[in-house]
Amino acid sequence: MTTTENHSVATKSWPDAPTSPEGWIARAGEVAQLLAVDAVARDKGRDLPAAEVQLLKDAGLVTLLGPVEHGGGGQDWPTAYQVIRTVAAADGSIGQLLGYHLLWFWAARLVGTPEQIEAVEADATKNKWFFGGAVNPRDNDVAVTDEGDTIVFDGAKSFSTGSRVSDVTVLEGALQDGQHVFAIVPSNIEGLTFHDDWDNIGLRQTESGSVTIDKVRVDWSSAAGFVDKAFAPRVYNTLNVPTIQLVFINFYLGIARGALEEAAAYTKTKTRAWLHSTVDSAVDEPYIIDIYGDLTSKLWAVEALADAVALEGNKIHSNAWNVTAEERGDHEVRVAALKARATEVSLEITSTVFEALGARATASKYGFDRFWRNVRTHTLHDPVAYKRREVGRWVLTGELPEPTWYS
Fold first, then answer.
1. Locate the Acyl-CoA dehydrogenase C-terminal domain: which residues (predicted)?
2. How many C-beta neighbours within 10 Å does residue 38 have?
3. Which bin fits 225, alpha (ψ -120 to 50), beta or left (φ > 0)?
């Protein structure tokens, strides 16, 4: 095993790919152990996470959802969410990168034709593509122009997670009639310029900076789900939102678990009992015991709900061509409820652990603040109040959320 000098993750040779969900989750645990070694140091810098992405490739995690016949893991979303959670516990940035990658890997299934799905998944799995996504639907900032046999994407996106470490990028833009178009292009294609301007307080290694899309031309055949320039919508096309919200939820919970586990390890070895206490050790301090009991109970409860909702969603994924609007809506309500609780619990855990650590634990060398910064940065993605609203409307009126880019 070797380690690079710029705080990149260690490398490792891996045995044959696991064949069971338990095996893949264990593999993710091994990856997490390697990521944890230099996680604090990497968080302080802005190094390109190329070695970390290569680790995900070498371990087989980037092809976790890929077809077995092409060398993929052949796993389902419940396993993928557990893998994301496990990786994020060690490094929230890499957990997010993996989660977004898996969503965009799955994008062909969400909106593509059967022929596109087969072709994309074969190529992505065989070549171990790492996906980025220049998709920010809130702003109509990329125009798509029909030029006969080709379409042209032109504009810019404020965020493009994965950018410079990706092999391929999912582009999104709108035709003149308002119809959105998705296409997968090589990340080094002419006209695609990633800007090294991601400088936020958390998730520092996610490569989520802006991108300029300058007349990127692709064949109409690359437009996901389009046949003869026409898109035939189906309910499953709208599963991108609950699926990626579950990705968010699971790396939030992974970050929270990482904070709790690292804090507990510190408390066992470094935290001191209060001088006016009647105990000699921090592990016997009543208020510290209460903090860990309270936070762990809350985390376990939300993790259990997350696992249950993942299984519910998997039934929809396995019936992609026949899912009904009601099934989709019921699932989105459950995801919304879970998103609200996961946001609250992850913010609470990553902040409250300091009360059990003591003042010395605020030293930057320990990096305990990175857990809160990572969660706080991403939980602002969309207002959690609107998630609670979806649940409240369903409870009071039976109204199901209308599919949007955020619901």
1. 249-381
2. 19
3. left
Confidence of residue 339 (pLDDT cuts 50, 70, 90): very high
**What pLDDT digit, counting tens, does each position of 86-100 carry?**
999 999 999 999 999
pLDDT at 258: 98
3-state class of 11 per DSSP? coil
Beta strands in 48-167 (DSSP E): 131-134, 142-146, 150-157
- CATH topology for 21-126? Butyryl-Coa Dehydrogenase, subunit A; domain 1 (1.10.540)
Q: Which residue has the higher pLDDT, 13 or 345?
A: 345
What is the percent of the chain where pLDDT is above 90? 93
DSSP letters, 287-331, are HHHHHHHHHHHHHHHHHHHHHHHHHHHHHHHTTTTT--HHHHHHH
Distance (Å, whole) CA 81 – CA 64: 11
CATH number of 235-397: 1.20.140.10
Q: What is the DSSP string of 322-388?
A: T--HHHHHHHHHHHHHHHHHHHHHHHHHHHHHHHHH-GGGGSTTT-THHHHHHHHHHTTSS-HHHHH
Distance CA 30, CA 33 (A): 5
- Beta strands per DSSP E along 158-194: 168-174, 180-186, 192-194
What would the mean pLDDT of 295-316 be, rounded to a whole number? 98
